[in-house]
Amino acid sequence: MYDVDLFVIGAGSGGVRAARIAAGHGVKVALAEERFYGGTCVNVGCVPKKLMTYVAGYESSMRDAQGYGWDIGERTLDWTKFITQKNTEIERLNGIYENMLENAGVQLHWGTATIIDPHTVSINGENITAERILIATGGKISVPDIEGAREHGITSDDIFYLEEKPKTLIVAGVGYIGLEFAGIFNQLGTDVHVIYRRDTILNEGFDGDVRTFLHQEMTKKGLHFHPKTNILRVEKTDKGVTVHLDDGKTIKADQVLFATGRTPNTNNLGLENVGVECNKGGAIIVNKDEQTNVPSIYAVGDVTDRVALTPVALAEGHALVDRLYAKSNRHISYENIPSAVFSDPNVSQIGLTEEQAQAQYPDEIDIYKSDFRAMKMILANSEERTLMKLIVHSKTDKVLGLHMVGSDAGEIVQGFAVAIIAGATKADFDRTIGIHPTSAEEFVTMRTKSS
After folding, report:
1. Tens-place pLDDT, residues 34-86
2. Would the pTM count as exceeding 0.90?
3. Is 436 marked active-site?
4. Which residues contact 85 (CB under 8 A, 6 or more apart)?
5. Which of 25, 152, 224, 436 is catalytic?
6. Which residues, in sequence order, are bridge partners of residue 388?
């Protein structure tokens, strides 16, 4: 009855995983992409950003090494070489994604796909019918309606392709994206100013102690934070930009980065043609089976605006096609999803924050915290400190949340995430022998409750 069994719109993490796994189940699959294979994460997100954290980290390591007796001497960064190397790696990954899809037997269509009816997609003037349609178009950058912001500012898409490393950078926003780039360029010697409307950094999904501690550590490293401040206007100058603030001050910089959030990418999909329901923010509404109000149309990943993380989109796409084509009943759990912020220092967490735990279990929460200077930092003459925190349910002894600010936080918390998913108690942590000397051992040696 149909040209294909499944038509996937979007070759990001969720779409590629769904298309490839479905094809592996013997399903006839077509996929459309209009920009690049791998989506935001591979091209202008997680991957190039992590490469930038590495290049910045080398600068910090060389500086710290002098405390251990290394004579580093004069050092310079060839920014053009780094960007070229980064671009080469992204192109390699794009090729891997494309080959992966082709080898799986997925029909690839390059262009903008529009849904015509519940079983038809139009692309490049061709109508293709499908038993099911999967939307996996991810999110897009949101730039505030500020005079000169779009004309003279840049976004996280642009910052990966700067021809020169800025000497002065203004970052608007203190979500994870803004803080990551603020930390990266600060390590590289850029004078960084961070502008934000709130009085605290990160959002309420992060533990209060973590937010405060990270702010203190980043301030110690030389970043300039401007809380409760708004940008009124961005003015283009011969040497860059001048940003006018609502406190009457102006800041001159080479670039101003707007890291002010993302919105679901639902434009030009033709959702109105079939009546697919979206929420006020434009996100596609789906049920527990990733199904929209139109039974033949599904959606996964950031376009649904549930948990905007690449591994979540991957898991959603995989579980969906397993249910549809492999007689599986598996659904992913949205509880205890570990995450990390690759700021300087890193942040990572899993489970409830102290604030969330107190709201769910009033007067039944025990807190364990450790704030220390890691061994590596002593000879390096670095004042960077590490924070580790456990939230425990006093009645069951179950560890409800685990949080860390410090070097390699993501690497450390990933391992502990398995324990939290398995329902580990504080007694399980206590009877675990630590690996000495490491920072990670602190999670299994904390014995004193925080007041």
Report:
1. 999 999 999 999 999 999 999 999 999 999 999 999 999 899 999 999 999 99
2. yes
3. yes
4. none
5. 436
6. 370, 404
